[in-house]
Design a protein that fits this description.
By secondary structure, this protein is of the alpha+beta class. It is built from two helices and seven strands; from the N terminus they run αβββββββα.
Length: 201
């Protein structure tokens, strides 16, 4: 009997202490995720009233899943241990508590540190690849420069050859024309003399 009285006194004192803490407004009924407010722990009950038996306590900042709308100032929830029960709506908030935020930031920091370590491991490899690519780029630039020079030389040689061929053609054409003219004159003279000799005969 004494144990039951002490338990009842403890629960009553806890209830009054919890009500003295700063409370926030209950979450909207359409929200699916909620949290127990910071700086307290509260109790989960089997029904939507303080008259129902206790199922256990829930620590501050615990993430909950809302299962029903508000009833008699209580909300039916599921906690992180998959327990279902009713908790006073004034102890539930839609904003994650400091403990949850700290855990999230700690996880993000760990992830960033892992990425940083991975980057530090990959950095020498990337630097070596950068050196190799830089050398390849220099070699390719040198080859391109050589090819440009060779192409310009071939173009100049082709132009010189073409000019030389044109001059040769003009020279050959002039020589052939001169030779034809010379032969024409000789033939004309020879034919003229033959006519004269035939006339005398």
């Amino acid at each position: 009997m004494l144990k039951h009285c002490l338990l009842w006194l403890f629960l009553t004192a806890s209830t009054f202490a919890s009500q003295a803490e700063e409370a926030q407004t209950a979450t909207p009924t359409n929200a699916k995720t909620a949290y127990i407010i910071d700086n307290l722990y509260t109790f989960m009950r089997s029904g939507a009233s303080k008259n129902y038996r206790l199922l256990g306590s829930i620590d501050a900042g615990t993430q909950l899943t809302l299962l029903s709308s508000e009833e008699n100032g209580f909300l039916k929830v599921k906690d992180d241990k998959d327990r279902e029960g009713w908790v006073e709506a004034k102890y539930i908030t839609q904003t994650a508590g400091l403990h949850k935020q700290y855990q999230t930031l700690s996880d993000e920091m760990s992830s960033i540190q892992n990425e940083l370590r991975q980057a530090q491991v990959e950095l020498p490899q990337l630097q070596e690849q950068n050196v190799q690519l830089t050398n390849q780029n220099k070699q390719l630039f040198t080859q391109i420069t050589q090819l440009k020079t060779t192409l310009e030389q071939e173009r100049a040689l082709k132009q010189a050859t073409s000019s030389k061929e044109k001059r040769q053609l003009l020279t050959y054409g002039g020589a052939i024309a001169f030779l034809g003219l010379f032969l024409g004159i000789i033939l004309t003279i020879v034919l003229s003399r033959r006519k004269r000799y035939q006339g005398w005969a």
